[in-house]
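Subgroup meeting minutes
Present: P.N., E.W., G.H.
Scribe: E.W.

1. P.N. recapped why we're keeping a running log of single-chain structure predictions: easier to compare across weeks, and new members can see raw inputs and outputs side by side.
2. G.H. added today's entry (143 aa).
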Amino acid sequence: MLLHIIARGKIGRSPEADLVERYAKRISWGLKVTELPDRGGTVPAPTANPVRSVVLDERGKQLTSIQLAHTLEGWRNDGVRETRFFIGAADGHDPALRAAADLLLGFGNATWPHMLARAMLAEQLWRASSIIAGHPYHREGSV
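Output recorded in log:
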C-alpha cells in the first residue's frame, strides 16, 4: 500500500524536510509527499474504493502507534492500494474534506506547525510499517 502525505505549504530545504526524507527511505511500502499551496489548489480526491483518506486534525482520534499500525494493516488486508494523509494550513481543512475522511487523526490537542507535523507523521508511518512487518516494538505490552 502506498502511503501519501498531502500537505499545505512548502517545507523547502530544512531539518524537518531532512527528517521526512529519512523516514520515507525507511518505509518499504513507499511514501509519496505532495505539497499544495497554503490556499487554493486542487486536493486529490479519492478516486475509488481502494483509497483511504486520513485528515490530521487537533480534534481527531488519538491513536497509539500500535493502533495506527493495526488500522493501516486492516486497510491493506482489505485491498486498499493507497492511504492519503492530509495536513492542513493555518486555517485548517475544508469542511468537505474533513467530512469525507475515513479517519480524523490527532497528534494531541496542540496545534503543530505543518513542517513539524509532516516529520512527526512520517516517523509514525515508518513506525507503523515496522510494527506491521513484525519488528519488535519496545512499547508493546507496556502501559
